[in-house]
Amino acid sequence: MKLPLLLSLVVLTQSLGRIPLKRAKSLRSRLQEVGLLEKFPRKFPSNVGSKYFKSPVKVITDPLENYLDIEFFGSISIGSPPQKFLVLFDTGSSYLWVPSVNCSSEACVIHTRFNPQQSSTYRAINQPVSIYYGTGSMAGFLANETVHVGSIQVHNQTIGLSESEPGSFFYYAPFDGILGLAFPSIAAPTATPVFDNIMNHRLVSVALFSFCLSLEKRKSFVTFGGIDYSCFFGKLHWIPLSSKTYWQISIDSITVKGQVIACPRGCQAVIDTGTSLLAGPLGSIIAIHDHIGVSEDSNGEYVVNCRTKNNLPDIVFVINGIKFPVSAKAYILQMRQGYCRSGLEGTFIPASSGDLWILGEIFLCQYYSVFDRANNQVGLAHAA
Asked: Per residue in 312-333, pLDDT tens?
């Protein structure tokens, strides 16, 4: 089950893989230009990376671009010679897939499609695959190929090649496919995720990756194999995973002005780079909006006068005893002049031990994030 996509640094010289991110025209802007916006679906500290490798580390230098103003994607290549694709680096799923030349869906036709006949390293598996996301889906087949993530080459990587991408979401998405960075447990046994193969082949010195995301003019990066200390200030707080499926953690409570307003007995959250907004149980989202004075308009959107944004309080996520505030500057989004809406979205996704929250790019642009596979933990620190 993929979580909703819409709701979804060379540091330590010679030891990091680095991908710079840059801004691109947002999906919302593209939809506004063609008059389809209203029709679009809403909806190294001592305990880090104890698994060290001795082999040389590749440095990743592919550019990533901004999606929907707060989503980031970047380039990889597949095959020999390499065929280039833009992919969403997604901690909320585990498959790598791109469109196939066999796909005739409108979403495929306007994106780059992989041609197996042009690659000498292509190996057919002919195993079908279907992946369902909150705002779209794909169906196709699995194959083995060489994948290039910057200067790193991953041989015999299982990839998905779509033959069908129904609906409108992927049609308007500015990326071609998705590179999942979650755990193997939510992928087919035959489809080992890319980062697992990177670890298994010892292509990084530390079994972790990290995201430095920014909406400002400074560049953003995803780094494989290290931590960029220039991307954050203060202490890097380590949070143990509560599930090795998605990057799932436990939340103590959610407060506004010191008052617990949601998650009073604890709840679960997924740190998801494939989700744009902050998503949570509908009842909790309504309670937060009521508490901060954001009202619902006739279209069902929670809107606010942009001039009042600076007066709205922080929403504070208390995680592992540490407070992680998210300011109104982050969770109130300006859509057009004088018109702002909330970046909080209600969902109906329960977790086994409580309601599930999705901490997407609104949260991750506030906090540098480290995904540590060696120790099964997430590190969070205030973004610089």
From this structure: 999 999 999 999 999 999 999 9
> Class of 230-383 per CATH?
mainly beta
For this structure, is 90 an active site residue? yes
Using CA atoms, how far residue 198 sits from 9, 53, 147, 172, in Å, is 19, 11, 10, 31
Q: Which pLDDT belongs to residue 69?
A: 54
Under CATH, which number does the domain 17-224 receive?
Answer: 2.40.70.10
Q: Residue 264 corresponds to which amino acid?
A: P
Look-up of token digits 């580390």: 57
- Identical fold for domains 17-224 and 230-383, yes or no, is yes
Choosing from 62, 176, 252, 272, which is the catalytic residue?
A: 272
State pLDDT tens for residues 140-174: 999 999 999 988 999 999 999 999 999 898 998 88
Q: Which residue has the higher pLDDT, 283 or 46?
A: 283
Q: Which of 62, 69, 90, 228 is catalytic?
A: 90
Q: Are 367 and 381 in contact (CB under 8 A)?
A: yes
- Would you kindly state where each structural domain of the chain is located, as residue ranges? 17-224, 230-383
- As given in the structure block, the two tokens for residue 99 are 């469109």
Structure tokens at 252: 């103590």
Q: Residue 117, Cβ neighbours under 10 Å: how many? A: 6
272 catalytic residue (yes or no): yes
Smallest CA-to-CA distance from 9 within 361, 363, 370 is with 370
Query: Within the chain, what is the greatest distance between any pair of CA atoms?
Result: 61
